[in-house]
């Protein structure tokens, strides 16, 4: 299992009802259902991923978060709303965050850090848009249209009154190195945030 | 029919008639003292009877869903594209049951059957049958076949309504409900089209208040018109455009009112053929069953409350160009299932053929349907 998913699954309690935004091939939900006794849905638009989910018994709904939103989900109808490696690919991440914490009591968000030293270094040296393992695209064809840094994300959370319950910063191999803990915005490649509304436990 | 049977065909099949003589109480308040159901089955029922799949047919469908009745049959069963060895509903793994519903005109008891009380066809005396009544009769058929729990109940359009109704009425008797190109209730527009069809039939001079059998005639024109208007709602503007465009049968306008455009002659042909094989009273009955279907009605219009007692998992599929039961109608159903915390998967298949797309195998449709049914098969040990 992908190490970031390994970290996330520890935060899902047995019986939790989970919504996975951009659930991919359903690996995480499948694991949460089988190993953690969780239930829930994945939203996905990629046809191959949808087929894979259906084949493995993951409840998948074809729904585009950008164009359709989450209006069909009731307030607080999920224990946890997940969004792994998709926040940077939606048109309005700020609105998606609001919606996540409307339909779920807790959100778990992972995204690549645009302030990682290698990206900073690449831009500074070559003067070209940086590419990395986590961001392997060209500027013109990247699905990652809303890149941000850990600091940016945390500033947005503060502005929206979103409380960060915990943050894990990992490198490209999803290892939780001590260096990344020390200077996350410089040395961390991917962050896993656990967020909630300030007034919630 | 080709010279030899395709490898993925269930082959030559023959229907069987099951007679029931315990009265069945119907939603309308009446009862049928005895009745027949004509049934086809494909594949083998396993020892634990866990691998059975029920196919529910749509408005003009019947029990002959797959394979051929004879080597010289022109076309295979109506859902042959999805039922057979290696197809989405894989007959190497599933025992597939397909019946003609009560009120039908292909061998099950319906308005054209003889009323034992009078010795003459029921005609208008045949009770109006609802989707719930069908499901009840299907459950009795399951009892007869030794099937306690279906691996899946599957249907498109009106058949999808039966699959949904099953989940509500017999929550312990199905594992999966597969609802394709369907809707939780008809809209005013849907009912309006049905009403035009019914008016076409009942205003035909040969209808005789539904007792045309007694006069040895058939309200052919009315039935033909009903089918023509229905057929338009099964296709999309784009698919009709692609098939016929503005193509003329001859090169030039004739400044008259005969069928000059290809689409006109196509509709006339479809209508005429249908009127030769389908019973007008059955058409009235089927359209009324569609109109009445509304499982949320008893729950103040809240489908999610109606679904609260269901136990099966759901697969809902819609088609992008279906305007009869458009994707939004399927999404209504899906959202009610989500609100009721049912396990549901949903996909909107991009296909140009309108409502009819559920009968036409496209790669995307076949892929998701196969993946889902494959998992159902694994789950029930088939």
From TrEMBL, chain A:
The gene is metW. It comes from the Bacteria. The lineage of its organism: Bacteria, Pseudomonadati, Pseudomonadota, Gammaproteobacteria, Pseudomonadales. This is Methionine biosynthesis protein MetW. Coiled coil: none annotated. InterPro entries: Methionine_synth_MetW, SAM-dependent_MTases_sf. PANTHER family: METHYLTRANSFERASE (PTHR43591), RHODANESE DOMAIN-CONTAINING PROTEIN (PTHR43591:SF110). Pfam families: MetW (PF07021). CDD domains: AdoMet_MTases.
TrEMBL record, chain B:
Pfam families: Abhydrolase_1 (PF00561). Pathway: Amino-acid biosynthesis; L-methionine biosynthesis via de novo pathway; O-succinyl-L-homoserine from L-homoserine: step 1/1. InterPro entries: AB_hydrolase_1, AB_hydrolase_fold, HAT_MetX-like. GO terms for molecular function: homoserine O-acetyltransferase activity. The record marks 324 as: Important for acyl-CoA specificity. Residues 51-359 form the AB hydrolase-1 domain. It catalyses: L-homoserine + succinyl-CoA = O-succinyl-L-homoserine + CoA. Keywords: Acyltransferase, Amino-acid biosynthesis, Cytoplasm, Methionine biosynthesis, Transferase. It is found in: Cytoplasm. The active site is at residues 157, 322, 355. The keyword Acyltransferase applies. Substrate binds at residues 227, 356. It is an enzyme of class 2 (transferase). Transfers a succinyl group from succinyl-CoA to L-homoserine, forming succinyl-L-homoserine. Homodimer. PANTHER family: HOMOSERINE O-ACETYLTRANSFERASE. This is Homoserine O-succinyltransferase.
């Amino acid at each position: 299992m992908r190490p970031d998913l390994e970290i996330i699954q520890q935060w899902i309690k047995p019986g939790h009802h989970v919504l996975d935004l951009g659930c991919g091939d359903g690996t995480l939900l499948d694991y949460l259902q089988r190993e953690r006794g969780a239930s829930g849905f994945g939203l996905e638009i990629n046809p191959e991923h949808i087929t894979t989910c259906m084949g493995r018994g993951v409840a998948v709904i074809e729904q585009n978060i950008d164009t359709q939103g989450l209006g069909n989900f009731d307030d607080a109808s999920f224990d946890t709303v997940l969004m792994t490696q998709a926040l940077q690919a939606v048109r309005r991440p700020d609105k998606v965050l609001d919606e996540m914490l409307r339909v779920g009591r807790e959100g778990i968000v992972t995204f690549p850090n645009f302030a990682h030293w290698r990206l900073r270094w690449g831009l500074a040296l070559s003067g070209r848009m940086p590419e990395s393992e986590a961001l392997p695209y060209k500027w013109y064809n990247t699905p990652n249209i809303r890149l941000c840094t850990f600091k940016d994300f945390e500033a947005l959370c503060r502005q929206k009154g979103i409380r960060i319950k915990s943050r894990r910063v990992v490198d490209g191999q999803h290892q939780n190195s001590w260096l990344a803990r020390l200077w996350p915005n410089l040395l961390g490649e991917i962050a896993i945030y656990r967020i909630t509304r300030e007034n919630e436990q | 029919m080709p010279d030899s049977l395709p490898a993925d065909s269930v082959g030559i099949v023959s229907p069987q008639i099951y007679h029931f003589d315990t009265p069945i109480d119907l939603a309308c308040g009446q009862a049928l003292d005895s009745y027949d159901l004509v049934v086809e089955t494909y594949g083998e029922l396993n020892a634990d009877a866990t691998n059975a799949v029920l196919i529910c047919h749509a408005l003009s469908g019947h029990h002959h869903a797959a394979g051929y009745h004879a080597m010289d049959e022109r076309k295979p069963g109506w859902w042959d594209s999805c039922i057979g060895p290696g197809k989405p509903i894989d007959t190497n793994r599933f025992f597939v049951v397909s019946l003609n519903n009560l009120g039908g005109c292909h061998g099950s008891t319906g308005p054209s059957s003889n009323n034992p009380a009078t010795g003459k066809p029921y005609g208008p005396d045949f009770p109006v049958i609802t989707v719930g009544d069908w499901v009840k009769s299907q459950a009795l058929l399951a009892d007869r076949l030794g099937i306690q729990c279906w691996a899946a109940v599957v249907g498109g359009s009106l058949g999808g309504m039966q699959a949904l109704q099953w989940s509500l009425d017999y929550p312990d008797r199905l594992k999966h409900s597969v609802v394709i190109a369907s809707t939780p209730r008809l809209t005013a527009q849907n009912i309006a089209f049905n009403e035009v069809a019914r008016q076409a039939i009942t205003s035909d001079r040969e209808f005789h208040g539904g007792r045309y059998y007694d006069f040895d005639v058939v309200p052919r024109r009315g039935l033909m018109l009903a089918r023509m208007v229905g057929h338009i709602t099964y296709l999309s503007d784009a698919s009709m455009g692609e098939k016929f465009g503005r193509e003329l049968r001859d090169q030039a306008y004739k400044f008259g009112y005969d069928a000059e455009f290809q689409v006109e002659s196509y509709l006339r042909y479809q209508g005429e053929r249908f009127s030769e094989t389908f019973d007008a009273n059955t058409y009235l009955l089927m359209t009324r069953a569609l109109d009445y279907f509304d499982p949320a009605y008893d729950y103040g219009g809240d489908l999610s409350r109606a679904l609260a007692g269901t136990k099966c998992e759901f697969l809902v599929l819609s088609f992008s160009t279906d305007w009869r039961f458009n994707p939004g109608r399927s999404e209504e159903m899906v959202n009610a299932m989500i609100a009721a915390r049912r396990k549901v998967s949903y996909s909107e298949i991009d296909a140009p053929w309108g409502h009819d797309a559920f009968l036409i195998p496209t790669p995307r449709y076949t892929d998701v349907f196969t993946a889902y049914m494959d998992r159902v098969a694994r789950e029930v040990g088939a």
